[in-house]
Amino acid sequence: MTGLSSPATVMAILFLQCVFKMAMSIQNPTRCEAHAVIRFLHVKGNTAAVIHRHLISFYGEDVNRQNVARWYCQFEVRRSDVHDEIRSGRPSVVTDEIIQKNDENICADRRLTIDELHLQCPEMARTVLSG
After folding, report:
1. In this predicted model, what pLDDT tens digit does every residue of 23-42 receive, in sequence order?
2. Every domain of the chain and the residues it spans
3. Could you count the other beta carbons within 10 Å of the beta carbon of residue 38?
4. Of 96, 110, 117, 120, which has the most beta carbons under 10 Å away?
5. Is the pLDDT of residue 63 over 70?
6. What is the three-class DSSP state of 129?
7. What would the DSSP string read from start to end of 38-98?
């Protein structure tokens, strides 16, 4: 099943029909929902600018033009997944030894500021120390 008869396309058409019938914009759409709409409208032959205008009409003015263009380009090069890829994030470097050293510094002088703690234990970020 390909083209307009595939289950995903039928669901997208039904979704868009419901969206166009709504009098007000959708509040707090999920990212993959917006990505699915971008993918569907891309397959229908719309340009990124037209897709952006459609998204604004049913999601409101907060739709970022650059993000629409980025996802449009990704679908141009045959991306099919509408979910964001998993990111590794920043790895944690805080070990038990670092925590113990920090606790000892605090116990030795409870009047230490965050900056002073950071100078004594630069491995820990200021945001971790203040939390």
Report:
1. 445 555 677 788 888 888 98
2. 3-76, 96-130
3. 26
4. 117
5. yes
6. helix
7. HHHHHHTT--HHHHHHHHHHHH-TT--HHHHHHHHHHHHTT----SPPP---PPP---HHH
